[in-house]
Design brief:
Layout lengths: L1 H5 L3 H22 L3 H18 L9 H20 L8 H9 L15 H5 L3 H12 L4 H8 L3 H21 L18
Helix pairs in contact: 2-3, 2-4, 3-4, 4-7, 5-9, 7-9, 8-9
């Protein structure tokens, strides 16, 4: 399939796209505000994959290579469509940084956290995903996004606070009540 894609064969490209669409969409949804944005990120990533396939080394697994391109594409998408704030009030961040290790509230195994992550503001969602899901450190995130490490830390702290608040209240960003107010029993 990869060799066919390198040769520009449309059937091979279609097969690769269909084979990795679900995997890629699951990743893109974490970085996107909604499904349409996720599909746009995913399609942009596939365009990059097909144009950069000559750089892919066949001896390495394809999935991690594709995942990395998808993450960089999501970062690029956010750079273009969601501008990061340039000023952060240090006094408001101090307390958030102190509380940033506070665990998120209890969720049952049947609950889907994705709607809450998608409801985060773009700059918080991006840092949250890179730190929590991709396990980047703040230095790497800062370098990728062109922000200060302190901004990365504060965005993560704010993302956790917002997630905690949304989960405790079970109210997504659009204001529709999902669940009744949940008794505060974090772990």
């Amino acid at each position: 399939m990869i060799d066919g894609c390198k040769k520009g064969q449309l059937n091979s490209q279609r097969s690769l796209y269909e084979h990795f669409y679900g995997y890629g969409l699951n990743i893109a949804l974490r970085y996107a505000q909604n499904r349409e944005e996720a599909v746009e990120i995913l399609n942009d990533a596939f365009l990059k994959v097909f144009s950069k396939l000559n750089y892919y080394k066949i001896e390495q697994p394809f999935k991690p290579w594709f995942r990395q391109i998808l993450i960089y594409t999501a970062i690029d998408y956010h750079r273009v469509h969601h501008k990061f704030p340039t000023y952060i009030d240090i006094d408001s961040v101090t307390q958030l940084l102190i509380d940033s290790d506070t665990p998120l509230p209890f969720l049952s195994p049947n609950e889907d956290v994705l709607p809450f992550v998608q409801a985060l503001p773009p700059q918080y969602r991006l840092v949250f995903n890179l730190f929590v899901m991709e396990e980047y450190d703040h230095k790497e995130i800062a370098a990728q996004l062109g922000i200060a490490e302190s901004t990365s830390r504060s965005n993560l702290a704010r993302a956790k606070e917002k997630l905690k608040e949304m989960i405790l209240n079970r109210v997504p960003k659009n204001g529709q009540l999902v669940y009744k107010r949940y008794k505060k029993t974090g772990f």
